[in-house]
Amino acid sequence: MQAWLCENPTGVEALQWKELPTPEPKAGEVRIAIRAASLNFPDLLIVQNKYQMKPPLPFVPGSEYAGTVEAVGDGVKHLKVGDAVAAFGGTGGFGTHAIVNAGLQSGKLVCGHARGLEGADLNAFMAAGVSSDHELTSGTDLLSKLSAGMMIELRGSHDHLLKQFVEVINDLGFMPQTVTLCTDDVFPDELYFDGGLDDVVRRLVRDGLKPEWALRAATLNAAMRLGRNDLGLIAAGRRADIVLFEDLQAFKAKQVIASGKIVAEAGKITDAFT
Fold first, then answer.
1. Quick check: bond before 188 cis, omega within 30?
2. For residues 37 and 3, is the Cβ–Cβ distance under 8 A?
């Protein structure tokens, strides 16, 4: 196979088109003969060592690609040679071939980018096994995908859309269990100064969502989505991972409890934890 190889992450100019061994799929994997690959902003960042995910060198960039299945590993039943597929592998797309994990076969969640999909196209996307979307484009898009039964991940980096999302959920009159939250595209300085999911919760409440609904999306709904029955509720048999807030607007942590131990209080770490 041939591919653009990143050995020195200093930018696009450092990529080299090289001959590489054609990989063989292991159990639960398939090899794709790539026919098309998209170029996204994260692809430009990752070859400059500026993206949050930093793959070990050398690597082949290219996060999203499509092609046909050329070989399948042991245990893969739902795909066969010749099937047309699309993949979000994170890396590997800027070459003639790539190995991807057959997510459905592995039992893992298959999450997607369903931007612009509706009607029959959205149904086909979901029928293929993709069960979530974090690429919403409007409040109407949110309502359409909720109606279709898709799991929604409201993105903190979609700040310009959050007010529309809040209006849709408020009009429903309840927080659907299929709505969760995610950050996406949050850089270290933003994480340090603004926060992660706590910042998403804060902005949803700023735009008019009930605090308890925002917290449910960030905790219980997310735990249910991930199949983590030990998280999401303060209840017997659950992990004692608890945050006490000073109020339900700024969501400033007053006390943090991890596995039943107080590990932070009044903005200071009180005990080492892992």
1. no
2. no
What is the pLDDT at residue 161?
94
Given a contact cutoff of 8 angstroms between Cβ atoms, the answer to whether 263 and 271 are in contact is yes
The three-state secondary structure class of 166 is helix
Tell which residue, 24, 14, 21, 111, has the closest CA to residue 64.
111
Contact in structure between 181 and 197 (CB atoms under 8 Å): yes
Using CB atoms within 10 Å of the CB of residue 171, give its burial: 0 to 12 exposed, 13 to 18 middle, 19+ buried. exposed
Neighbour tally for 183: CB within 10 Å: 18
Sheet hosting strand 151-155, strand order edge to edge: 132-133, 151-155, 179-182
Instruction: Give CA–CA dist 167/148, Å, rounded.
Output: 19
- Confidence check: pLDDT of 127 > 70: yes
Gap between the Cα atoms of 250 and 206, Å rounded:
9
Helix (H) / strand (E) containing 102? none
The pTM is what?
0.73
The mean predicted confidence, pLDDT, of the chain is: 91
pLDDT at 4: 97
